[in-house]
Design a protein that fits this description.
With 244 residues, the protein is of the alpha/beta class. Helix content is 32%, strand content 23%. Pfam families: GATase (PF00117).
Length: 244
């Protein structure tokens, strides 16, 4: 099998390693089946799509809607690399699934708009599949409504031209969309379980996602939540796109 490419942007080692471990767990891939690139540490370089079965992009504290003067050199470099990759995968209609930051990377191309209008605090939210989402091969085995873990400052306000809306919530109109037949982005985190979310609450308590003094309340919320369906998207992505 050709390997999958996993791209991360988290500078915090424990959170970054937890995210990567969750990707392996949810996809069923071995480390030998994945090449991991931490974009906050190293440049991506040219991507030859034919070398890969597909590409997965994780989340992180970068936001494309951050004020330009507040973006570090690392963030600007990662954004530029991912913007080029986004155009490349959309042009080729190449298998790609970006979680959370994937919305920022894909949502602003081809006339789309990503801004702070529909941000959501860290939490457990019910999403609803659209008619197109219920028929989509990546989502067809999921129920029409299911709970997800999320937490984001920015979201899609206007979909890119030609994008297909797959899922929404009452507080965020775009929870998942597709470009072409094989390029996907989700606002929620399909890899997250309770312990992973608790770790992120603790790691990012000073990053503006919630008042730091309320961290324990968010952890208690996470521990009361039951989220079971989203990881199936990752397993289906690998089953659908793994190539010899």
């Amino acid at each position: 099998m050709r390997p999958f490419l996993f791209l991360g942007t988290r500078a915090e080692d424990e959170a970054a390693d937890s995210e990567y471990a969750a990707i392996l767990r949810c996809t069923g891939l071995a480390e030998t089946d994945v090449r991991r690139v931490r974009l906050e540490r190293e440049a991506l370089g040219p991507v030859v799509l034919d070398d890969w079965s597909g590409i997965l992009l994780g989340g992180g504290p970068f936001n494309v809607s951050d004020p330009a003067e507040e973006k570090s050199a690392v963030q600007r470099r990662a954004e530029a690399e991912l913007a080029r990759l986004a155009e490349q995968v959309v042009d080729a209609d190449f298998p790609f699934l970006g979680a959370c930051y994937g919305i920022g990377v894909l949502g602003g191309i081809r006339g789309g708009l990503v801004d702070r209008t529909h941000g959501e605090p860290i939490g457990c939210v019910e999403v609803t599949l659209s008619d197109e989402g219920r028929a989509d091969p990546l989502l067809v085995d999921l129920p029409e409504r299911f709970d997800v873990f999320l937490g984001h400052k920015e979201a899609v306000r206007r979909l890119p031209e030609g994008a297909v809306l797959l899922a929404s919530s009452t507080t965020c109109p775009v929870q998942a969309f597709r470009l072409g037949e094989h390029v996907y982005a989700t606002q929620f985190h399909p890899e997250l379980d309770v312990e992973g979310l608790v770790l992120r609450i603790d790691t990012y308590r000073e990053y503006g996602y919630f008042p730091p003094a309320q961290a324990q309340a968010f952890i208690d919320m996470a521990r009361r939540s039951v989220v079971t369906e989203p990881p199936r998207m990752l397993a289906t992505f690998v089953e659908r796109y793994a190539r010899p």
